[in-house]
Amino acid sequence: MPSRPHPISPVTPHRVERHDFSALEAAYRLLTSAHYRTSPLDLRRLLDAPGMQLWRAGDASALQGALWLVEEGGLEPALAQAVWAGTRRPRGNLVAQSLAAHAGLAEAATLRSLRISRIAVAAERRRLGTGQQLVAAAASAAVGYDYLSVSFGYTESLWAFWRAWWL
């Protein structure tokens, strides 16, 4: 039976106040420890780029998990058509572009979405429901968007995690 984590709440990266910086720092540290591709450039993107959301389970002193959401899609129809045709690849929009270019769904790139870019759970909280509760928070945050997506490198354990969520 999953145990309940500390409350799940958003951290607003681009409006971090001095008292909230420790929460952002703790979340970034956890994301870095869990994903080999997390870099200082990611922290800069979290702080500066529009359309970034960061959710945390617990507070800075007892952080149990972190989830990074990225807004994607919403491309103009002409650009979506160019993505579908393979003549344009604008930065970002990983899933929106994949749906357009690889699945042949040009209109998919015009839809607005949130993509789960990274999720990390503290080692002592794994397999206790913290990750699932973070994903549920992301799904709640997707109100007003056309879909929620995820991209991840395949491992058996990640596949089992995402399969349990989506099925």
Detailed description of the structure:
Its EC number is 2.3.1.193. GO terms for molecular function: 18S rRNA cytidine N-acetyltransferase activity; tRNA binding; tRNA cytidine N4-acetyltransferase activity. It comes from Enterobacter agglomerans (Erwinia herbicola). InterPro entries: Acyl_CoA_acyltransferase, GNAT_dom, TmcA/NAT10/Kre33. The structure is a single chain. By secondary structure, this protein is an alpha+beta fold. It has 2 domains: 15-71 and 114-161, Gcn5-related N-acetyltransferase (GNAT) (Aminopeptidase); 75-110, no CATH class. It has 6 helices and 5 strands. The chain has helices at 21-34, 40-48, 77-85, 94-101, 130-141, 156-166, and strands at 8-11, 52-57, 65-73, 112-121, 147-150. It has a 5-stranded mixed beta sheet, with helices on both faces. Helix 3 crosses helix 4 (94-101). It is globular and about 50 Å long.
